[in-house]
Design brief:
alpha+beta; 3 strands; globular
Length: 172
């Protein structure tokens, strides 16, 4: 499957309330290079997550820890969905491939923060279930996607520390 079809398949799983607001992109900066590549996710055209392979390499040198253990909570910058160098484009592509073949329950229980983020937007995820998600241990990317989905579905956000998607600059 080509990237364009994979992107389309992932984005088609997003709830109708999300519409065209969330987009996934990838690029390669030089022909034939598997290193100078990156992916990114936007909400309303604003980049909220950067999946840069060179930045990931600079941070971890190919000795990357498990996806859910890369950045301790106390080292995160408040408001960032993804920290600089936290994920590579390969991580994004791998998450897309895995996500399209997972059930809703498997996607929600995934240790992969990117898959969890996609699951928050998934149309198979009902409103009642959205309200029951415990946001305290969610990766910031998944939390941001959940917050967006709740707003798009006109559901209340109960966490006191939650921020308004429409009024926040989402630079990562």
């Amino acid at each position: 499957m080509k990237w364009s079809k994979l992107k389309q398949t992932v984005e088609e799983k997003f709830s109708d309330s999300i519409g065209e607001r969330v987009k996934i992109y990838t690029t390669r900066y030089t022909s034939g290079s598997y290193f100078m590549v990156r992916g990114w996710i936007t909400i309303d055209g604003i980049e909220i997550a950067n999946f840069s392979t060179p930045e990931n390499y600079a941070k971890y040198n190919w000795n990357t820890p498990e996806l859910d253990k890369r950045i301790p909570q106390e080292e995160r910058n408040k408001g960032n969905a993804v920290e600089k160098g936290e994920f590579s484009r390969h991580d994004l592509m791998d998450a897309c491939w895995s996500y399209i073949n997972l059930s809703m329950d498997e996607a929600l229980k995934s240790d992969n923060p990117i898959i969890s983020a996609f699951a928050m937007l998934d149309k198979r995820h009902g409103k009642r279930r959205l309200r029951t998600i415990d946001r305290t241990n969610l990766h910031p990317l998944a939390a941001k996607m959940l917050e967006l989905r709740l707003q798009c579905e006109s559901l209340s956000i109960t966490n006191a520390d939650s921020t308004n998607i429409d009024n926040q600059n989402m630079n990562s």
